[in-house]
Design brief:
This protein has no helices and nine strands. By secondary structure, the chain is mostly beta strands. The N and C termini lie close together (8 Å).
Amino acid sequence: MESSPNSTTVTAGVRIEAAAQYLPAESDPDRNRYLYVYRVRITNEDSVAVRLIKRHWVILDAHNKREDVVGEGVVGKQPRLEKGEMFEYTSYCPLRTEWGTMEGSYSFETDAGEIEAGIGRFFLVPSVDNALSPK
């Protein structure tokens, strides 16, 4: 991530960094449609390989309306990361309010079993302070 992430968490040697950016050209405030792109970087800092098998996002809008998004892998993938390896992806989050938050967890499979790695809260706000740098 070329810009500073809005969220950094480390669980059992898995570092997860996340940041979001508002997409004004893709949004329509008159119809309560606000679109955000978010980027996540996952780095395995442990000596044991991990494979991402599930995700669970908790998305809250400005009215505290909660949406849970649960599924296998991320962006159609279940990456396996050896020690020191990193996986990064981008995805989108539509909101019905101008701002909100995202947080959640990833489930990883290891040779020793399964670990649940937290994804710290990050903000979906139309601000240049949290802009993602282009790749």
